[in-house]
Amino acid sequence: MPGAARRSLASPVVNGVLCQCGGAVPAAAEGTLGAGSPLPPSASPLLEHEQRLKRLFVQLDVNRDGALCVHDLAVGLQRLGLHRSERDLWKIVKAGDKDLDGQLDFEEFVHYLQDHEKKLRLVFKSLDKKNDGCIDAQEIMQSLRDLGVKISEQQAEKILKRIRTGHFWGPVTYMDKNGTMTIDWNEWRDYHLLHPVENIPEIILYWKHSTIFDVGENLTVPDEFTVEERQTGMWWRHLVAGGGAGAVSRTCTAPLDRLKVLMQVHASRSNNMCIVGGFSQMIREGGPRSLWRGNGINVLKIAPESAIKFMAYEQIKRFIGTDQDVLRIHERLVAGSLAGAIAQSSIYPMEVLKTRMALRKTGQYTGMLDCAKNILTKEGVAAFYKGYIPNMLGIIPYAGIDLAVYETLKNSWLQHYAVNSADPGVFVLLACGTISSTCGQLASYPLALVRTRMQAQASVEGAPQVTMRGLFKHILKTEGAFGLYRGLAPNFMKVIPAVSISYVVYENLKMTLGVESR
């Protein structure tokens, strides 16, 4: 398509108001204050920029009340040839609305555009791998590859050449206006200036996994955070929200988790526990409150484990020496697995305590401290690290398969359905998190079962004190391969409610802590 034709399809906002080409202002805006009137040659760049923003504000102020509401933006942008969804328009208003009156006055409008331009510049710099002031197809491919999304050069050129804005049936506008198959800063800024930041780093914002979802096993690879999240301090708010969500989620699914532990330790061919029978047995032995035995220590270990894993992950990233803000998939797996091993090593005595508290009988211990004192007195310090080796070995299959499945599902969705935004929506995100967590647990479950039985050895009267290898042989000999998956049913039953509850609580805590809504 010729360059002139490209420019005729470009946004009138760019041609008529923001850029320096002196294009005509749309007919819908004729007669408005200052619209289309040339600036004198002596006007300073700052004054010229302010007058251009003023003309744009007047064009968008449909009802002429001196403020922009969602309706004004919808109608005004449509007149200028830009189609935005209602959600996108609310993002713009909420981002700039300092006095919380549901609309933007001129000062708020200018501040929003200035802040938005800073974000766009950060994104542009992160994409401009060659630091030559332009983004080409190879740089688009590399940036997406760093996030685990593989595209062809032809697809990358399509991203440069044509981007649909707003609804998928809306008009096509061109970011690469001069047809050079590269995008310079001015083209990037003008194209995205009146659009919420929907670009490659947005994938990191929308596709958080480890922070949001908690299924009781904190073995997943930590999430990445964008440059903006690090600079504004939003990362720790995400971690706090994730920790709170995990506490609520684990508490709500604690009865299923305790049943899983009981079935892992006590179930066998001669003692075939079922789900209903297991719950009935727990209630008969200790009443309804006994369903939550071991939950207190399970919730308490969230904070130190998450903090240690995050700090270790950041240090390992520096040790790897990559100059990328976002690690590649294999680098994430290595860094995440090592960070998980460090965190698990630090809090592993709490894991043993959790298992012993879940298996205790009524009146056996007065509390967590009494349980710890009893173990230390009768079994020594080494008892707090029983099952440590199978636990460490379980990190790699769990984290690796969870990460691989999640990235595969994410990559597939982004390639086939991400037309306007990287936002997958609640149901897609929940489905991907549930499937990947389930696959990770299925792969590492035999190791988790052996770990739990080794942790419980001293608490089960007459149980043989065997090694990991000996325990595997014993289970396969007496129960067959099925014996390695005892308790799998209640474990899988808790995945969907755990993921759903943690997501809902995470979103609410995130708003309470002042994290910007995605």
UniProtKB/TrEMBL annotation:
Subcellular location: Mitochondrion inner membrane
Domain EF-hand: 48-83, 115-150
Membrane association type: Multi-pass membrane protein
Gene3D superfamilies (UniProt xref): EF-hand, Mitochondrial carrier domain
Per-repeat ranges for Solcar: 233-319, 327-412, 424-512
Alphabetical list of InterPro entries matching this protein: EF-hand-dom_pair (IPR011992), EF_Hand_1_Ca_BS (IPR018247), EF_hand_dom (IPR002048), GDC-like (IPR002167), MCP (IPR002067), MCP_dom_sf (IPR023395), MCP_transmembrane (IPR018108)
Keywords attached to this entry: Calcium, Membrane, Metal-binding, Mitochondrion, Mitochondrion inner membrane, Repeat, Transmembrane, Transmembrane helix, Transport
Keyword Metal-binding: yes
Keyword Protein biosynthesis: no
Entry-linked SUPFAM superfamilies: EF-hand, Mitochondrial carrier
Protein family membership: Belongs to the mitochondrial carrier (TC 2.A.29) family.
Protein name (database record): Solute carrier family 25 member 25
Source organism: Salvator merianae
